[in-house]
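Moderator note: this is an archived Q&A kept for reference. The question asked for a predicted structure of one protein chain; the sequence and the answer are reproduced below.
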Amino acid sequence: MELSVCMAAKVDEVDYAVLAEELGYSRIWVADSPMLWSDCYATMALIAQATSRIGVGTGVAVAGLRLAPVTAAAHATINRLAPGRVFCGIGSGNTAMRILGRKPMSIARFEEHLKELRPLLLGDEAVLRHGEALLPTRHVMQDAGFVAFDPPMPMYVSAFGPKSMALAARHGDGVVIGVSTPEAMDTIWNLLDAGAGQPVDRATFRTAALSTMVVLEPGEAVDSDRVKAECGAFAMAVVHYAYEQWSQYGVQPPAFIGGIWDDYVALLAKVPAERRHLRIHLGHNCWVEPEEERFLTPDVIANGCMVGTADALAERVTALAAAGLHELMLLPTLATKEAVLRDVAAKVMPLVVTS
């Protein structure tokens, strides 16, 4: 198991990635959402130059925002600065597209995008669709020092359902998932196997999960002020996602959100429908809006994040590793992120195998 960090792209906080490297985290996944944060590639370039060991990649790039050649060239540019440390996480845009008032890319179009992107990340030729035309393209000056496709950059596909899991298995080197239980990891591997049409090699195909973690002090409640300060933003992002799934697809929220659901829906109903997409993700994975603080109940925190004593957290991480999870990335609240990384590195990391 590797422990890594996901960060909202913030171009003037490169020292955070330096800290993650110093503390022993494996990779820094830089989130991509242009209408929320700094540009992810500018941030990655600065991180690449400020660090020497830690992996640097998108966590995850949004397919609907850029053509595949643009995404491939951006990663290959960073690979010139940090050869062998760069990876590409790619997704259909659960947040970045919705904050534009649009739905994420369809499964069919996402697969087409992955077919375009994969060879381009390798420096090979790809065929792109432009209307009804199919046009070949490749980076034609890759030997002139502008970009680097060697060492190769692995591609992780973000997947939250059976169809996207199938795409990850068919086209990716790995998959990005929500944090799961050891029991659910069996289901995930079964979905990957089914999507590939054959057993996926658990040694070479990588699974990475996104969550955050708070190490409880003796006797501390799961909804203490400190816990809320360290993981509240991630817990509320889970609620934001549940609302989007419910409002756009009719998916019922998970049971642990049931206690706050009607009140939360009523809060958003006060915002005109045509502007609601601009309100839902305020503070997304960075802070909790004051009017949303009441939604941070023990159920929402405990089920949306990983909160427990150091021993309990280490036991959970070890169980996830045994079930086939290769990497766990942490996305703490913006104002407390350094404290969270230090706490986990000092109290949890020594208790689990991290590589």
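Archived answer notes: DSSP finds twelve helices and 13 strands in the chain.
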